[in-house]
Amino acid sequence: MPNLSKPYIAQAIAEAMERRAEAAGVEATRVLQELARIAFADIGQLFDAEGKLKPLSQLDPDDRAAIRSLQITTREMGDGTLERKAAIQVWDKLAALEKLARHLGLLSAPAEKGTENPVASLLQDFQRGEDCA
Predict the structure, then answer these.
(1) pTM over 0.70
(2) Rounded mean pLDDT, 77-100
């Protein structure tokens, strides 16, 4: 893609993308807000005190935003009762946190060689499944 390195082509693409985002009503602030909703979601808010999934109408919009998919299945048991099961997936919290951290400059390269970026290190520990306490 050698044409992308040409300033006038890169500028035209950037302007076209900006017009497209404006037409769709997409603003950087809104994108950051949506990332924050996912990054700071508490999945415990999706359940009641007995551990049952709350009805969607009872969930806060910020908590609903963290839901990636929801599948509810119902089957009739041998005794005539109905069994309902819910399978819920939430958006990737770590990915949202990482995107926000990058946007805020928290994951930029360390100033001095040999120094470690603590946020980057913490995210790497999470990705490896290590205890970060």
Answers:
(1) no
(2) 91
Q: What is the model's pLDDT at position 58?
A: 94
Angle among Cα 100, 105, 107 to the nearest 5 degrees reads: 80
DSSP the chain: -GGGGSHHHHHHHHHHHHHHHHHHT--HHHHHHHHHHHHT--GGGGB-TTSPBPPGGGS-HHHHHTEEEEEEEEEE-TTS-EEEEEEEEE--HHHHHHHHHHHTTTTSPPSSTT---HHHHHHHHHHHT----
* Residue 10 banded pLDDT, cuts 50, 70, 90: confident
- Measure the CA–CA gap between 86 and 73, rounded to whole angstroms: 6
